[in-house]
Amino acid sequence: MTRQTSLLYLDGVSVSFDGFKALNDLSLVIAPGEMRAIIGPNGAGKTTMMDVITGKTKPDSGEVYFNGVVDLTGEDEASIAELGIGRKFQKPTVFESHTVWDNLELALKAPRGPFATLFHIISGAEKSRIEELLTLIRLSDKRDELAANLSHGQKQWLEIGMLLAQDPKLLLVDEPAAGMTDAETMETAELLKDIARTHSVVVVEHDMHFIRALGVKVTCLAEGSVLAEGSLDHVSANERVVEVYLGR
Ligand SMILES: Nc1ncnc2c1ncn2[C@@H]1O[C@H](COP(=O)(O)OP(=O)(O)OP(=O)(O)O)[C@@H](O)[C@H]1O
């Protein structure tokens, strides 16, 4: 795939912290509509890669393009969010003292990026959008519940719904299954598969049952670059992947 036809294009990206290369000539291409799983040992550079995509960290060298033409290295975090790249951090950050419905309503009205919310009358179209999101995130029957009363997994789903309310083109999801029960983990894989029907998704995760359930192309990072890429079976059969990651 060429840069022009890609959704996300990283080529030769390097980032150093005090001489240590967190990313080392990393190249990775995500197609429009694709969901990609990223695996790799601690310190492989997964978070740094997400930081580069979202503008939190500027690469020392390399190209980072969104939608084929937008040079993300020239944009700040707010404008990258505005371009339609949403990021879900590991820890859920929902408004605990608001209901599930109100959290989604606030997210729907917020401009993309850092929240700056204003209350005004909600339209019929906005109500149906919230209903749709509630169904997608499996929280229709919890709509009037305070977010504080949700389980950890449900809070993660709510936050995913809040990101989707901003209609991102690309959703970056950092370890969504961490701290979840097995049932929640499997339901989260189904949820992301539903989301991937209409969005591009990059998901970082260590849980191999979860990765298998996603059934998508996998990239294994190690020492700041791509170690192996392909189906989970292909990547799992790679000796170096077993050595540095799976065989731990
Ligand atoms: N701001 C920073 N200053 C110095 N070193 C950093 C900084 N951020 C990351 N690093 C180092 O860069 C390397 C890559 O870290 P990164 O967090 O990207 O890895 P990761 O693959 O996300 O790991 P994990 O699975 O543990 O989250 C690590 O060795 C880390 O200590």
Q: What fold name stands as the CATH topology of the largest domain?
A: Rossmann fold
Give the class from helix and strand content and strand pairing.
alpha/beta
Q: What value does the Rg take, in angstroms?
A: 18 Å
Shape: globular
- Count the beta strands: 10
Strand line-up of the largest beta sheet = 6-7-8-3-9-10
Could you name the CATH class of the largest domain?
Alpha Beta
The number of domains is: 2
Instruction: State mean pLDDT (0 to 100 scale).
Output: 92
Major sheet size, sense and barrel closure: 6 strands, mixed
Work out the helix count. 9
Q: Give the name of the CATH architecture of the largest domain.
A: 3-Layer(aba) Sandwich
User: How far apart are the first and last residues' alpha carbons, in Å?
Assistant: 33 Å
Could you state the CATH homologous superfamily of the largest domain? P-loop containing nucleotide triphosphate hydrolases
Strand proportion, as a percent range, falls in 15-25%
Which ligands accompany this protein? adenosine-5'-triphosphate
| Helix share, percent | 25-40%
Give the SSE order as H and E letters. EEEHEEHEHHHEHEHEEHH
How would you characterize the overall build of this protein?
- The chain is of the alpha/beta class and 248 residues long.
- The strands form 2 sheets. A 6-stranded mixed β-sheet has the order 6-7-8-3-9-10, with helices on both faces. Strands 2-1-4-5 form a 4-stranded antiparallel β-sheet, covered by helices on one side.
- The protein has 9 helices and 10 strands.
- β9 (218-222) and β10 (225-230) form a beta hairpin.
- The two termini are 33 Å apart.
- The longest helix is centred in the last third of the chain and has 15 residues, at 182-196.
- The protein folds into 2 domains: 1-84 and 168-248, P-loop containing nucleotide triphosphate hydrolases (Rossmann fold, 3-Layer(aba) Sandwich); 94-167, no CATH class.
- α3 (100-109) crosses α4 and α6 packs parallel to α7 (208-214).
- The protein binds adenosine-5'-triphosphate.
- Adenosine-5'-triphosphate binds at residues 17, 22, 40, 42-48.
- The site of adenosine-5'-triphosphate has 10 residues, from α1.
- This is Urea ABC transporter ATP-binding protein UrtD.
- Keywords: ATP-binding, Nucleotide-binding, Transport.
- One of its GO terms (molecular function) is ATP binding.
- It comes from Roseibium litorale.
- Residues 8-248 form the ABC transporter domain.
